[in-house]
Design goal:
heterotrimer, A mainly alpha (289), B alpha/beta (606), C alpha/beta (393), A: 289 residues, mainly alpha, ABC transporter involved in vitamin B12 uptake, BtuC, two-stranded antiparallel sheet, 75% helix, C: 393 residues, Rossmann fold, 2 domains, 5-stranded parallel sheet, 15 strands, 43% helix, 18% strand
Amino acid sequence: MSGLWLQVLFGGLTSGSIYAMVAIGLVLIYRATRVLNFAHGEFVVLGALVTISAARTLGTALLPSIVAGVGVATVAGVLLERLVVRPVSRNPHFVLILATLAASILIRGVMMIVWGKDTLRLAAFSGEDPLRIGDAAILPQTLWVIGSAVAAVALLGAFLRHTAYGKAMRACAENPVSASLSGIDVRSIVVLSYALAAAIGGLAGVVIAPIAGIDFQAGLLLTIKGLTAAVIGGLENLYGVVLGGLLLGIVEAYGSAYISSVLKDALAFAILIGVLMVRPQGLLGTRAR
Amino acid sequence: MTGTAGTMTGRARTGWFVPVALAVASVPALALHGSYLMGTFSTIAIFGIALVGLDLVMGYGKLLSFSHGAFLALGGYVMAILSARYGVPVLAGVAAAVVVNVLVSYIIARATLRMSGYYLAVATLGFGVIVVQLLGSLPDYTGGWSGLTGMATASLFGWRLSTDFHFYVAGVVVMIGCMAIARNLMASRFGRAVRAMGDDELAAEMLGIDSARYRIQLFVLSSVFLSVAGSLYALSLRVITPANFDIVVTIDMVLMLFVGGKETLWGPVLGAVVVRLIPDLFESLDDYKTIMEGLAFLAVFIFFPRGLAGLLERLARKERLPPRPQAHRSAHGVLTQGAAAADRTAGGAPLIEVVGLAKSFAGVAAVSDVSFALTQGQLKAVIGPNGAGKTTLFNLLTGVLRPDAGTIRVRGRPLPDGGPHEVSQRGVARTFQTPRLFDSMTVLENVLVGRHGTLRAGMANGMVPLAGTRSEERQAVQRSHELLALVGLEAVADAAVTTLSFGQRRLLEIARALATQPAALLIDEPAAGLNESEKRFLGDLLIRLRDSGLTLLLVEHDMSLVMRVADEVVVLDRGKKIADGTPAEVQRDRTVIDAYLGPEVPVAAG
Amino acid sequence: MLQAGKGAGRKWSWRLRVWSAILACLSVGPLAAVPAFGQNDPIKVGALLSTTGVLAPAGSDALPAAQIFIDEVNASGGINKRRVELVHADDESRPERAVALLKRLIQRDRVIGVIGPASTIVSASLSPIFNEDKIPVVGCICFVGKITPYEFSAFPLQGIMDTLIRFAGTSKVSRVGVITQAGSLAELVKNTQLPALEKGGLKVVGVEQMQQNDTDVTPLLARLKGAGAELVFGALSGTTATLAAKNFKQMAYPGVFWTYGGNASKQFIELVGSAGDVVNMGGYKILVYRELPDSDPQKAAITKFAEKFIARTGRDPGLYAAFGYDAAASMIEAIRAAGDDPVKIRDALEQQRNLQVMNGVITRSEVQHNGLATEWIPLRVDTAKKTFTMAKP
């Protein structure tokens, strides 16, 4: 069993990077609006499905297909904000979350009609041959996912820190009232947040799809895993989110391999609850009450 | 709009609720007898019980807790296992399940106490996953994923529950009973405390409400309802599997809660009717029905954010009667009571003593080396430029913040460090710079929350109020009216807080703080936002309060008010005390003039 | 924007709200509708199959297949000149909805038998109703645990392990590592299949359990490798099977991989990609009907069915299509023999002997309510042509 721990680690990184990628968009919307977007997982799936359709049915090359997938997901994000979130925005957060939940049911229904009920697959970006390290093997696609997550966070971080729009987004997240008094159009910043989050979500779907396939149902579970990852890392912090996702994947993998594969989710959540009892704001969260 | 809050002043009018509810519930019983839908409605009635619990935690308690599926499961499985394996009768099984749920929910409540918002959501979601997975993976005890069968036919007081109709009747009776009890509870002292916490936790704490304790109690109470529902559910299904309690069911219940109308207790069961019957509505659309379901729920949340119950209330609401002019109630009694409390202080010794207080935030000293004393019966004012540390001082004095250095003594004993509610119990009350009122309640109810510390009814008395509790409530209402008369708000006692003017909100907050019968009242910038006549009224009120024996500490910017009412003035500048003396002395103090007042000082008027 | 519309808009939206509420209330009416009257003529059989939700792929295949069979029956005159009507209800993969719909099928639609469901997630909750209301069901699942009087299935349970044992023999391996899905499948495997393997002379050296939504099971496979498994038995169904196969190849596992023939579908080939070349399975004729030798007695019937299925749905029939067709066949045969008394139909179902259906031959008894014996075809995947092919013996 010498290579087992390494193989388990790779397995954990694979699933963990998926969670991290999904979590980034969730946290972006949370920071801008303090709302949990239950429909986020659907954007992930939508991006993947559109890309698959473009690549297979229309025969377009990979890169334009990805652009199409991310583009459609972005449009969906904007539509969600304008048609669902905005009319409900005056209500307490609870109602907003439920509205996004209802929207997720709607989007899922549409995807079921358009793409059917089967699981669809996208070809791996750089082939299927795994890389061997020692006794263990890792898929190149996993490296794509990890790389995308890191790149997304880095680019997003730079955007938030150095561009005018990014700074405006941060201002809105801190205090929407004073932001709007300073002349920032809070409405369009919120739309931008949703668009950006959906785009990243769509991209997440695209890089994830080659690993395990994607089907119209996958959204709900992805949303929950993404939320769990975000909470572990601390909802405020983008780096924390990636850390949280990777940790979640690794904990699940080791728990599954060394303790019990049946209780994998139960174990992961037990550890999560333990973390939150000690640090209720997540590992890198800043809210110290 | 007050919603149901307006009907909950003092005592709940349970009189009409039970008969009306029974009448409404008898409609499906008659219309659907023998139909296949009876089964669906019996499940709806049972879920109605669970939804009462969920409304308590998520609706009133405003906790994003997703653990209800797990408690439902525990209630069901304990009942099922005891019945199938050991032939335990219904009532004993339900009781055993309740005991298990109380224990587990207490543990979970304590574990998640410091978590909030989405952190709490994920933790409770995780708890649900843990329970379901454990139930599925222990086939020797629970029948595993294939489920548990073989429960004995349920029999309640000799009446055998074997058909869907029986379960409907049983479910409805228990459900209405639970609703009635819960309605009583939410109109009682306990319920007011919970609603106050949901509206503004800090303000509630400042009135002596230990929010941690109430949160735990609420959580445990709701698990009792969930447990009973789960047990009945298992009996009605005859086969119980982990899949009956998975995340889909958990999310469904939240949908039911909001579609039906949260914070009503009777609304969510209507939501259950909708959620359960919607698939039938769109069935003929085949695969398109998912889209229609999504649209239907979206429509509800966009157009009826308060749910069906909110809609029904609006349709049924008569025009609000204009407030009746009340006979002027004497405010005298109010103040003598306050004085009586103050008499307990040893004469002469300072009521509040602050020595060397210091507090920094991220390296910047908000308060440094501040010392002063407040003697009983004194009205002291704290003034200083913006950013001088006045509000930080108040937060330190009321237990909202912990000092980095220095001591605070109240009546000679150090300030308790358990949080604002302990400080309140010590006799220190406070108002805020911007009035933090409980917006879901009426004016009178806000003051009633202030009486929390002087009342004694707990959860049990709240659910089934006996004569003692009822008279206690009546007295509290009486006192609250008197306090409102004192601040001149008697005429709007039954109005929604959201309809008050800014000045009225301020006065209400003062009345509410007085309701706690404090020894010392800390008021933060009371004159801000008031017009001239309101300021005059306020000044007179403060003087009357002081004269009746109450000790007051005032933070204020309005110099004319300060000069008029204050016995002594403390001046802060950039966290340090730069002067302490009578208003006249401070007016003349050079350092003060330079820092704050400027060379021209308005002379105190009258 | 929000302020401007308030005055005039408020009245309008108020009306909208009230009307929506009224409409919503009105639509509840039809639900408690009187059962359709004057319909004594058709024989009604219920089809309780999930066409939305988690189980959608299975149900969406079984339903058109069952419909095709019913159409064939009606085309040749029905049963005693009476038309057969298939009444479909979609339980959305949810147990409590299935319960409600079953009651509706029995009470409102007055079905005399039911086809479906396609999974134990749903069927466990339905068991008491079938037995108490005395309505027989032929499902597309197999049974774990006890047999009840009114539940039957057309699911091939016997002989699966024989195929695996044979395969192990020809591959000259004897140590088997099992990877299965946690839940009722794992229970089935552990209770019935593994003992059969052991009886057949194979040694089970490890059992690993994965979850439906796992994205990587290399750690589990690594453990099996460590335990010395020469043959990895993927006791899995659907996307989990493809994942296990892919990870198996990705790790260059030193051994052979075998999984249920039930996984053989176009989707499987799609998802498994280049890892298809490691896959071995014992399959059903429906899956490679084009390759069957013309001498095969069933080829003609199967091909006819497949063509109808493709015409109706635009895709190749998968396993659940065949199950659906066979369940319908079994039920209709029983109705022919016994009339429309559900109790007698139940007896007839239990007494079916040597009934030829698409997947094989059904023989039931008091202690055997599945009874489908299949002729197994060893299959491999042709990754170039993206189809299944019969393995060279």
